[in-house]
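Recall that a protein's primary structure is simply its ordered list of amino acids. Everything else, from secondary elements to tertiary packing, is in principle encoded there. The following example makes that idea concrete.
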Amino acid sequence: MLFVGAIVISYMGLLGGLAVASPGEGLTGTLMEIVPGNWRDEAHIPAYGLLAWLVMWGLRRRGWPVPYAVPVGVLSTIVFGLWTEVAQATVPSREASPADLLNDLLGGLMAAALMWYEQPARHLVARVLETSTATRDVRAKGTDSK
């Protein structure tokens, strides 16, 4: 779990650093100017979706059931998104945006949907493989008796 926690905190540090970077100043600011503005706004969806996924994945590895891990993952993503928007508002050439917070929520919800539906799919694949193995064993036993 320590490894997963380190990944989540490192990724949060990256997102926090990008939130307070000023366009045109320093390396991150120069890189930000290369990316079109509307892409930066929409990049919140996959960025915060990945954060939510990492939090939920870490909780699942600790044995949390999906119905508990999903809301905690989404809530932690929204709280962190709110924190980054407040931090961003303190930077002179940046401003907080409710649209960014909604994109953060959308990313978290998309990750939650993937986490929610990934679990039944994993069980379905296991059942199909188990059934095909059992069928093959029955056929093999049936040919031995002839």
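DSSP finds six helices and no strands in the chain. The chain has one domain: 2-139.
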